[in-house]
């Protein structure tokens, strides 16, 4: 079972395995007990996948999909045509959806459909019920002489 502690330990081991000379960063040697107390590392295949994904990533962090080596001017004509066709299709879909929602809104405003009254009825019954219970409990306590009123001392 993968626990958060094992996952953090595996991440630390992954980072440490990427560094070429870990001992040059510290003046003391890592003891065997320290190594044995660390959580189990990730399986080798998963660690290799993570390392290759990290090394092959050309993401510049802006989320636009362009790598730092590419520029907007170097995009090919076919890519631009494909993107413009996709944009046109998305705009057409959006305008069709807007037209459908406008038609449905106008149809629902013209016809007086029965509204769902569950929430207002439930609220009204709840308020009346709790008020009645509170009043009953007050009368019960008053009749037994157990009702505390701060102004009656």
Commentary on this structure:
This protein has 153 residues and is mostly helical. The chain folds into two domains: 54 residues, no CATH class; 58 residues. 62% of the residues lie in helices and 0% in strands. It has five helices and no strands. The longest helix has 34 residues. The chain starts with a helix and ends in a 9-residue tail after the last helix. Keywords: Membrane, Signal, Transmembrane, Transmembrane helix.
Short description, anyone?
This protein is mainly alpha-helical and 153 residues long. Helices cover 62% and strands 0% of the residues. The chain crosses the membrane at residues 117-136.
Structural features:
153 residues; mainly alpha; 2 domains; signal; transmembrane helix; transmembrane; membrane
CA gyration radius, whole angstroms:
35 Å
Strand content: under 5%
Structural class: mainly alpha
Our count of domains comes out at: 2
* Series of H and E elements: HHHHH
**Main β-sheet description:** none
Total strands: 0
Number of helices: 5
Structural topology:
Layout: H1 4-18, H2 32-37, H3 44-56, H4 77-110, H5 118-144
Biased composition (Polar residues): 68-79
Keywords: Membrane, Signal, Transmembrane, Transmembrane helix
Region (Disordered): 57-89
């Amino acid at each position: 079972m993968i626990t958060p502690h094992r996952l953090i330990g595996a991440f630390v081991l992954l980072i440490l395995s990427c560094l070429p000379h870990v001992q040059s960063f510290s003046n003391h040697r890592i003891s065997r007990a320290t190594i044995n107390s660390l959580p189990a590392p990730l399986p080798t295949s998963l660690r290799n996948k993570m390392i290759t994904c990290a090394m092959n990533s050309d993401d510049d962090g802006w989320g636009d999909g362009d790598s730092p080596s590419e520029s907007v001017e170097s995009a090919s004509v076919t890519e631009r045509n494909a993107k413009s066709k996709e944009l046109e299709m998305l705009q057409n879909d959006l305008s069709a959806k807007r037209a459908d929602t406008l038609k449905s809104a106008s149809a629902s405003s013209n016809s007086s459909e029965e509204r769902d009254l569950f929430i207002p009825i439930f609220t009204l019954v709840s308020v009346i019920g709790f008020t009645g219970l509170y009043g009953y409990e007050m009368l019960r306590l008053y009749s037994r002489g157990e009702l505390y009123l701060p102004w009656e001392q």
